[in-house]
Amino acid sequence: MRWIALAAVLVGVALADEGRAVWVQPCDISSPDAIDLLIRNLKRANIKLIFVCVKDIRGRIIWHSERFSDAVHPDFRHFDGLNLLLQRAHKANIRVHAWFCCLTESPESPVVKKHPEWQQKNPNNQPTTSEIIQNNRKYNIVWMCPARRPGYVDRYLIPMMVELLKKYPVDGIHYDYLRYPGDVAPDRYCFCDWCSQHIFRHAHMFYENFPDKEFAPQKPLLPRAAANWLKDYTIRPPRKTWKNAPSTVKAEFLLRGSTLWRKIPLHRTPNPCDMDFFFYTYRCDAIKRSLEEAHKAAIKVRPDIVFSATVFKNPVLAARFCGQKWTDFLHLLDVVAPMLYRSYFPDSSFSEYLTMLSEYVRMENYWVGGNCHTYCAISVKDLYKEERREVERLAALLCLTGDRARQEKALDSLALLSGEALSSFLGKMRKTFSAFSERLKRCSVQLFNDFEKCFATLQKAAKEGGETKAIFRKLRHLTALLLNDPPPNFYPPKKLTAAINALRKARTEGIALFCASSITRFKLWDALAKSFKQPSELPHLAKPVSVPSTQVLRLLHLCRSELKQSR
Ligand SMILES: [Zn+2]
Fold first, then answer.
1. 126 alpha carbon to ligand 1 midpoint, in Å?
2. Which among 192, 210, 370, 515 is least buried, having the fewest CB atoms inside 10 angstroms?
3. Is 247 helix (H, G, I), strand (E, B) or coil?
């Protein structure tokens, strides 16, 4: 009995320490009613930490800013949602971290228009909006240079954080998009005028006191040419040549050049192309430095502030592709939330994803090494890839994508179908519908019957003729309902439960869910309340990190000795 009691206590302690967090988007707090509903749901699900988007990916902020009033989101100009949310959340014992999409803006952002020189630039001196993404679409996010000083980080982003901290009693700062756009163009940013100069200074590749002198070993001291790096010869190309070189030539050198370029012609040396190492290191250091500066400024205003960050799941790969070597800055964070989103794993079945998810939780624990609290993050929407795809196929048949005018035009074309053509199109729709019809019938007989009625009417029209536009419109409405306001259980809650269980089994310390609006949309608050039935304290507040810094340990030691002496 004693063993059982002990085990229960241990399990209780373990569960009580589980961190739980949810991302909250501006649309979730756009009215007092929306805020009340959110708080009710969070309380029901025993979630005590939210990351609330205060600066979105397009650079729009939601607080009532004096200094950055032109960046305030139109929905929040007359409604201080953050203020009300903080009141309600704190009353419910829920902590609020201000979530910043740190380095992104929209091309229309006032700051981009005022300071175009703060944008990241590619080798052709173009900003990120010159990139083309899937389906030949233009990429419409502007990434700002994290390295330039004075620049976006020290003149805009950090002053924003400071203003927010002074005006609103948020409990933490949550960094997101603190990286380079490696998911769009890994090797093309940033080659702005500042970066292509400063990279040499950052790695001290020439002596500032001898700006035009080129130190180079006359003859190699060691047989392996690269081993002579210790002699600190000049790596930066001659100042004037570099200054006048086109940005494409500079980029070519930084990505494919060699630090040995003065000694050995490229084709003769077996290991020449090492300049890219310094390019990627420069980017990682620029990100880390931005975080350090933000950290210092925030602590000055609010010493009690907590820091959390969303990061890509693999810090080694993220260092190479996004400049986000987050293992370098764990000491500046209280909570790190690696994104173990299904869309960031290879295409696979749901059960394979769960296996890969577990493997990654173990890797996160290995990388973090106890230096920070880890809340492994999953995207709720991504869990339902199969179910969404089934409905999206029907939506595509009904031309439910694109703008309103295009949709109306497509509807007119559908309404022109008759006879054989209509019958064959109906066959396609029925086949697509059959992929989820049984599940729908179990969740809502009414909706199932509505679909069937529409199909029957179209069948009749194919045989006997008649008006079909209203029926197609109705089918579109029903399909949109399945995507945006489905009946409960249509998106099986057991998938969310299985993902949470997989995270727990692999020993995650905390679970972060992206995002509140997905949980609402897929009707999953009940399932979450069941999974999180056991109340829990936030581990980053309840217990210290297992490996605090030497300085913190020393400080604690000094405090303790002083206390002893004062007794
Ligand atoms: Zn730059």
1. 12
2. 210
3. helix
